[in-house]
Amino acid sequence: MPWWCCRKEINVTGIQTHPLYRLANPGSIVFFGGSNNIGAMGTNILMSLLAMGFEGQVFPVHPKEKIVQGLTAYTSVLDLPITPDLAVMVLPTVLVNPTLEHCGQKGIRNAVVVSGGFKEVGGQGPVLEKQMVEICRRHGITLIGPNCLGVANPHHKLNTTFLPFEGKPGFIGMASQSGSFLTQMFNTMARHHIGFSTAFSVGNSACIDIVDCLDYLGSCPHTKVITLYIEGLVRGRAFVETARAIARQKPIVAIYVGGSATGRKAGSSHTGAMAGPDRLYDGIFRQAGIIRVQSITELLDFAWVLGSLPAPRGRGVVIQTHSGGPGAVAADAVGRAGLELPDLSAKTLEALKPFVPHTGSVANPVDLTFSKNPLDFFDPIPKVLLEDENTAMLMVYFLTPLPVIRRALAMMGVAADRIESEADQMVTQQAQAFGRVFEQAGKPVVGYNWRSTEERFSQVLMESGVPLFGDPQRAARALGALVRYHQWRG
Amino acid sequence: MPWWCCRKEINVTGIQTHPLYRLANPGSIVFFGGSNNIGAMGTNILMSLLAMGFEGQVFPVHPKEKIVQGLTAYTSVLDLPITPDLAVMVLPTVLVNPTLEHCGQKGIRNAVVVSGGFKEVGGQGPVLEKQMVEICRRHGITLIGPNCLGVANPHHKLNTTFLPFEGKPGFIGMASQSGSFLTQMFNTMARHHIGFSTAFSVGNSACIDIVDCLDYLGSCPHTKVITLYIEGLVRGRAFVETARAIARQKPIVAIYVGGSATGRKAGSSHTGAMAGPDRLYDGIFRQAGIIRVQSITELLDFAWVLGSLPAPRGRGVVIQTHSGGPGAVAADAVGRAGLELPDLSAKTLEALKPFVPHTGSVANPVDLTFSKNPLDFFDPIPKVLLEDENTAMLMVYFLTPLPVIRRALAMMGVAADRIESEADQMVTQQAQAFGRVFEQAGKPVVGYNWRSTEERFSQVLMESGVPLFGDPQRAARALGALVRYHQWRG
């Protein structure tokens, strides 16, 4: 057991006193392994760090180069003018421990070791990793890794991962046994207008493990929901205790890939973590109050809804649509997700009357077929539905058929060269109108369709905070998780 | 029972003699309900029909307008210079039967009735629908609808649905009790470079029902896979018999939304179809050899793979990745989908050697971490994996991080204004290289990532025919369905 794991108390008072705070919020960084060779992983990570606009000083250390990525480089960490808060290492395996020793001598107390070649490989790897822990213990270094991508804390403009950060700081915390699910999710999350609060890639967990990161995220004020990617747990008991304490305050969503024989095989060759039977992890998650998901897509879906929507007052979902089939599949998905479709109150039916054409249905799903005024679909119709006492949650089907809008504008006499911008303006207004209803809803609201996330309408809608899913099944499952979480929390 | 349903024999000889052939492949069309008022549904449908470039004559009938959408309009169908093959009606309910009677008198033998207000509503609706069937019987009219969107046959440039067609003719047949899943899927399918062969929206099924359409699609040479959207079946036995006969030749994938109480409620208010318990439909589908899916996304996922990939010779999936986590979740998904991860043969391991860096793993998942030459990932590495005798199927993780490519090009001295086009060219070459491997594979190959379908790399890859999924779970489930189908078919 590494020294770090001996910490028994869970820190819940003030994030700034948390043992991981400085690692995730360093004032300055010494960087090993960056150069001017774009083929090197270290160079890519250094570029991503700099591209994010990290506000503290960054000191590259390089044996030969004088200038690295435009910064003055040093031949040894011992030569630095100050003692940086954090060391990031992307070095050949054999250089890691000697360099770490120098960092300790310099007084550096936090390290990210990206380099692999330790416990996850055979031969001398486990021995080297033991020596690494010994150096950390001796110097009191808080180390994340090896074989990891470190930390992304966009609120602090910190990114020690491979890819440049995209999007904005957000509310989703992550502790992951795969660095890919930090760095390779930047783009995915940015397209959905969600973002990480702070994300940790723990790698081999020589010192800091997923429990420690979970603990940190529990205290982190930016983090509204915590996501975990787990290939196997070592400290099962500490994990359950930490998670249980946090889950009462903020939801935790986890994917475990060691459950199937095939997943176990893949995971163990990746970080050397110990996997166990699927049912064992089901039990661990249940004890800990963790919501389990079956895919990375679902991990983000659930995090989006759990981290941003209010607690539902019941399990009744009202579906708003203008097409029967999309309404029916949503209704079916709602049922399968353990939710209900309440009837609308007499008052709501009355209030809807002016907006619903004779072809429409005011059963639930509310199928408008079309709106007399297309803007009504975005406001006030959803507002009326949200005011219904039986509506705990609202799920809306959004179809924004640009080709139809374009040809309508053309027939209305809009000049050809103005059609694109007018159509753009029209869908932007629609999405913004709905966004305002969403903001004031006080109830969970989600959207769904099968269209591209790149469409202007979808982009504005998501920018307004509305979770928008590529299938009603995903939307319903996420709402189901939201209901179960708040029921469990009580 | 409508007269149409009395047909007992299943037509499997020559599509041109099929009773639905002329309806799906008309030479000329009379259109009721189109005008120059863009607010009218009929106008929108007529515009979509014309926008597709339908090659036969189209005759709008309108009581007042002389020119409709640039075409000479007639005040009555009886005035037309010829007898068109097909009538499309988007008229107020009360006008439908009298107009249909005129069509019969004119000798028209095929009709699409888009108008609603029949069996799906109360009052006089069911009576009017009975009269409609009587008119059809008297004149020998093959009628689809009412309360439907008719037919999209892009191979014939026919589209009687609301939205303009997008993309290309394809291999996916559809018979649907919701018109939305024809017309609102055009965009979704076009983005994935898949398309309908012929798609039917059956609406209330007064004459033609889903069984008849299934039968047609079974004979249709363009159709390689059939998708069904079902809210409830009337002719259960005919459905099972027809489906079973077809399923041995081409796969049938179905979603049934009447199974949950909530779905049943939604479906019955939509087309008035009779729904039944979930288990009943499970039994029907099993007897019929139909593959059941749980979402519209999965309907298209399965159709894509079942309709375009060869039969796998076993259940062994090889996963190719350059990132551990995405490999591990894929491995887990493969296991959960009932598939296996075989070890690679000694011969393959030997052949891979020149391409795998020391950080990589040649277990399965084959985790390359990075390639010495980035193009190797697209060819020849997948080629080597496909040649392995244990590889029945190949699943590849595609990350195309444009920001990394851009900054690499910048560091290599490419001028700022050339970077976008060079990056574009690079990813295009990569996707095309993989596309060529795919074409010659002779084994099922799929890709996955969490990126936008709009990216150039993804677009070129899908254009080459490679099914690309937004999550490995979706990819694995689709491959699982492919294996089960071919095992069942034997």
Q: What's the count of strands of chain A? A: 19
Question: How big is the Rg of chain A?
Answer: 25 Å
Low-confidence stretches of chain A: 1-12
Global morphology of chain A: elongated
The CATH architecture of the largest domain in chain A would be: 3-Layer(aba) Sandwich
DSSP helical segment count of chain A:
18
Task: Please identify the oligomeric state.
Answer: homodimer
Query: What is the total number of structural domains of chain A?
Result: 2
The CATH class of the largest domain in chain A is Alpha Beta
User: Which structural category do the helix and sheet elements of chain A fall into?
Assistant: alpha/beta
Beta-strand share of residues of chain A: 15-25%
Largest sheet of chain A: 7 strands, mixed
For the record, give the distance between the C-alpha atoms at the N and C termini of chain A, rounded to a whole number: 36 Å
Query: Quick check: average pLDDT of chain A?
Result: 92
Question: CATH superfamily of the largest domain in chain A, please?
Answer: Succinyl-CoA synthetase domains
CATH topology of the largest domain in chain A: Rossmann fold
What features would you describe in this structure?
2 copies of one chain form a homodimer. Chain A has 490 residues and is an alpha/beta fold. Chain A folds into 2 domains: 15-263 and 270-306, Rossmann fold; 311-489, Succinyl-CoA synthetase domains (Rossmann fold, 3-Layer(aba) Sandwich). Helix content of chain A is 40%, strand content 15%. In chain A, the strands form 4 sheets. Chain A has a 7-stranded mixed β-sheet with strand order 9-8-11-10-12-13-14, sandwiched between helices. In chain A, strands 2-1-5-6-7 form a 5-stranded parallel β-sheet, sandwiched between helices. In chain A, strands 16-15-17-18-19 form a 5-stranded parallel β-sheet, with helices on both faces. The interface between A and B is large, with 85 and 85 residues.
